[in-house]
Amino acid sequence: MPETDYAASTDDNADIESGSRIVPLPPSRLNRALLAVVRIGVGLLWLQNVGWKTPPDFGRGDPPGGLYLSAGYAVSHQVLPPFAWVMDHFVLPNFTFFGWMVLLVEAALGAFLVIGLATRFWALVGIAQTVAIALSVLNAPHEWYWSYLLMLLAHLALFATAAGRYAGLDGVLRPSWELSRSWAARLLVWAS
Amino acid sequence: MGGAIAGVGIMNPNRAMNPYRALDRAAMVLGLVSIISAAFLFVHGTFQLVQIGAVGLVVAIVLGLLAIAAGLLAERTLMIAGGVAFLLAGAAQLALLAGGTSGFLGGNASTFSLWLGLGAGLIAIGSVPRPEMAQEMPATD
């Protein structure tokens, strides 16, 4: 074996022994398909659950229901007192506006995660929305807190793996975005 | 940018014949998803991911077929037209929901979400410029 090869091999072994070199997973068809399944599954979670956000009152009434009831748990079953204060003083009194915001954000989450467009950006939005939901209902009756932790972890995985590049539109469109000089394309490269 | 994409296609042997084929296939897949979503007219309960009414079923099938045709014909204009139509249908569904009912489309916010995704996806695919094939493809004889 030539000396240079031996040197390289020694370096490789040292890297592996020190744990500084991570061997990436092979981009097999199965791995790509599994990442696509996770992304589409998480997208469908949002897509289906935006369905019970019903305008124009979003469940505000007597008795309260739907989204208003869930949001109210942030105050009646506090998780984080500052968050409960914000909900009590700003969100619940202006609930029509916040209800529409929730509907639009969750509809967009479902839409873009399912088709895999700007997936890393929407994974971050999903993390933020999951945290908001968790801070509202984590202490509510009959809630399983691991549900929200699992949601959070799933979105972290989508972000870390850039899951829209596998059987998603990010994978199809990134080559054109990378070659474009427009600011929108540069933004989409970052977001995908 | 179109020429640059052609360059990417040439570098990638899988896409060497036509670098835009993946875009056309993606449009067809979105159309297929729309047609499949029409089946939710007959699904109720836990696994009803999307609420589809009778008129919504027509929207899903007609626009789905339009997206498939756009992909088969590699017609960017048709893709964008289909995308805009999905967005308009989604906006109409949202406006009906704001009035407190599902309205004539018979959907809910999930329907809006689905049509938003299909519309945005088709517009994104159709917005990728393509050169005239006659100018890009070298003579073979």
Distance between the termini of chain A: 43 Å
**Helix segment tally of chain B:** 6
| Fraction of helical residues of chain A | over 70%
Radius of gyration of chain B: 18 Å
- Largest sheet features of chain A: none
What's the mean pLDDT score of chain A?
91
The chain pair forming the largest interface, with residue counts per chain, is:
A-B, 28 and 31 residues
Strand tally of chain A, please? 0
The succession of helices and strands of chain A, N to C, reads HHHHHHHHH
Taken from the alpha-carbon principal axes, the silhouette of chain A is globular
Low-confidence regions of chain B: 1-16, 134-141
What do you see in this structure?
Chain A has one domain (about 30-190). Helix content of chain A is about 70%, strand content about 0%. Chain A is built from 9 helices and no strands. Chain A has helices at about 5-20, 30-50, 65-75, 80-90, 95-115, 120-135, 145-160, 170-180, 185-190. Chain A is globular, with a radius of gyration of 22 Å. The relative contact order of chain A is 0.12. Chain B has 6 helices and no strands. Chains A and B meet through α2, α5 and α8 of A and α1, α2 and α5 of B.
